[in-house]
Amino acid sequence: MSDFKELADRYIATWNEPDADARRAAIAALWAEDGTYIDPLASVAGHDGIGAVIAGAREQFPGFTFRLLGPVDSHHGIGRFAWELVPDAGGESVVEGSDVAVLDGDGRILGVYGFLDKVPASQ
Fold first, then answer.
1. pLDDT band at residue 122, thresholds of 50, 70 and 90?
2. Which of its termini does the chain have fewer beta carbons within 10 Å around, N or C?
């Protein structure tokens, strides 16, 4: 079984990658071709869809960084981890969530199922 801590680190690094080409390569390395990403705001399949969701989050929150929040737990090709989105300049997180990732037989992400635990208040 894949080391989920290392996978979660690579996953978070992909969300933080500013270069679109490097991000695309990271997505291709992490996700199965038909991999999915589903959270309360998105439901996409394939590398292009996943890339669009990540690019959208980066555009919505410039000057912020995703970080793992707490331990990574896994069993039987399924892992879960919490994360937060924090200002680069420091301060409190603006978004927090938790993701569950399911791997295929090759150790690539087949699906990520995200939950948002803390979101910015509406203006």
1. low
2. C
Q: What is the mean pLDDT of the chain?
A: 95
Q: Is residue 82 classed as helix, strand or coil in its secondary structure?
A: strand
CA–CA gap between residue 14 and residue 68 (Å, rounded)? 12
User: If phi over 0 gives left and psi between -120 and 50 gives alpha, with beta otherwise, what is residue 63?
Assistant: left
The DSSP bridge partners found for residue 44 are 37
2, 11 in Cβ contact below 8 A? no
- Residue 11 identity: Y
**Which tokens sit at 57?**
């989050």
Global pTM value: 0.94
Just give the CATH number of 4-118: 3.10.450.50
Predicted confidence at residue 38, as pLDDT, reads 98
Domain limits, the chain: 4-118
Band of pLDDT at residue 121, cut at 50, 70 and 90:
confident
